[in-house]
Amino acid sequence: MVKESAFEAKSVVVLGVGLTGRAVARLMKKMGKKVLVNDQNQTLPDDVKEEFDRLGIQTVLGGHPLSLLDGDVDVLIKNPGIPYKNPLVAEAIRRGIPVITDAELAGLLSEAPIIGITGSNGKTTTTKMTDHILSQAFGKRVKLGGNIGIPIADRLPELSPEDFFLLELSSFQLEGTKKLRPYIAAITNIYGAHYDYHGSRQAYLAAKMKITANQGPDDYLIYNAHDKELSQLVHEHSKAKLLPFDAYQFFDKGACVKDDRIYYDGKEVMKTTDLVLPGVQNIENALVALSVAKILGVDNETILHSLKSFYGVKHRLQRIDDYHGAHVYNDSKATNIAATTIALKSFNQPIRWIAGGLDRGNGFEDLSPYVSHVASAVVYGQTRQKLADFCREMAIPVTVVDNLEEAVKLTAASVQEGEILLFSPACASWDQFKTFEQRGDCFIHYMDQLKGE
Q1: In a domain, 1, yes or no
Q2: Strand 255-258 with 241-246, pairing
């Protein structure tokens, strides 16, 4: 059910057709609103056209005529990725027509308390980790949605006051909110990102801080205390109860780490070695997830069991089944050097590394400080020669092959018990694959084939 009385608009323009726009249009029509959907594409996918025709949803395609705003338009609900410099968005703002995103619908219509997680890095893994714990504790009362790929508008009718609405929220979504008020909010970290969309760092930070803008003293904000800029921002702008987390120092309030043990409010919860996922970044993700769980009264045993069985988000340093005593990780989402740096820093064991993909013109020298424990590498794709040259400069034994399947076979043949078999390409996938997801699925498939032999 949704709190329909909280949304008084009668005539709605939905800007952008995709998973989000389609779900918003469907929900608005179900609520009895007059709905018009606008998209720059000339045609709709057949299934979308069929649904809109069946529901009686009007569409205007092929551009963004400003005349769409004439008459009785009460609100424009835009796809979060559409920038505010879009002419229709800019004109709506000029005319005083509210411009919101689906995250604002959550704030207005959700009958369930909202748990919102944002941050520059790690928010997807943190949200999934939190969902894994809460689902163990509360079962189907936990409803997941947002930037994680499940449209908010599709979830809203399913909610009851007894549920928890767990949302991954991007800065794009948050900028389009006015009344969103999570019961629990979390900010994993703040780095430079999306300045092309927001216009400046200040605007980006302001968008992120909207997650706590309407919180009060009965709400909670979990924040990364190791991030000094973020700490200052939350103390200046939030009225919620502040719960810090820090993977580098111990304190009595919030979640922290000391001597490879994780504590909450000064009491031990688990060991860092109980986590399946490697790296300090995943310790930080776990600190957020268990903080949410502790606020909601989840016991340590459930938290420990859940985190020991969480193998990560697919293609994001995802641990898959071991191979001959070696841990195997699928990090196909590592489409650049920064992502592969994080992967390499996550391990102390010897690494058998698979890398390669689309050549964007860059070199790989920035990886130099992080490859001392790489025992060997197999490289493929457009960047194979560049990567091979880099490995030779770093005295890493390297083999050059044409494709990922060959790379997997050779690497699996050399990996030893106790080592890490790491697929972290450091390159985009488009030389041989349509998406990084397809690339990661192929890696998993090739590993499964070898295990079956």
Answers
A1: no
A2: parallel
- Kindly indicate the confidence band of residue 36, based on its pLDDT and cuts at 50, 70 and 90: very high
Claim to verify: residue 327 and residue 448 sit in the same structural domain: yes
Q: pLDDT-derived band of residue 199, with 50, 70 and 90 as boundaries? A: confident
Q: Which of 120, 101, 238, 121 is nearest to 182 (CA)?
A: 238
The answer to whether residues 323 and 250 belong to one domain is no
Nearest to 131 by CA among 123, 260, 206, 436: 123
Q: What is the CATH number of the domain that holds 343?
A: 3.90.190.20
> How many beta carbons lie within 10 A of that of residue 251, not counting itself?
15
pLDDT value of position 57: 96
Task: Tell me: do 161 and 212 sit in the same domain.
Answer: yes
Same domain? 107 vs 82? no
Same domain, 118 and 90: no
**Does residue 313 form part of some domain?**
no
> Which are the contacts of 400, defined by CB distance < 8 A and separation ≥ 6?
378, 379, 380, 384, 385, 388
SS3 for 140-160, per residue? HHEEEEECCCECHHHHHHHCC
Domain count, the chain: 3
Same domain, 361 and 392: yes
- Which pLDDT score, from 0 to 100, does residue 193 have? 62
Residue 412: how many other CB atoms lie within 10 Å:
22
Contact between 358 and 383 (Cβ < 8 Å):
yes
Spatial CB neighbours of 196, under 8 Å, sequence gap ≥ 6: none
Q: Are 391 and 382 in contact (CB under 8 A)?
A: no
- Model pLDDT, residue 121: 82
Query: What residues have CB less than 8 Å from 322, skipping those under 6 apart?
Result: 328
The per-residue pLDDT for range 243-282, each reduced to its tens digit, is 999 999 999 999 999 999 999 999 999 999 999 999 999 9
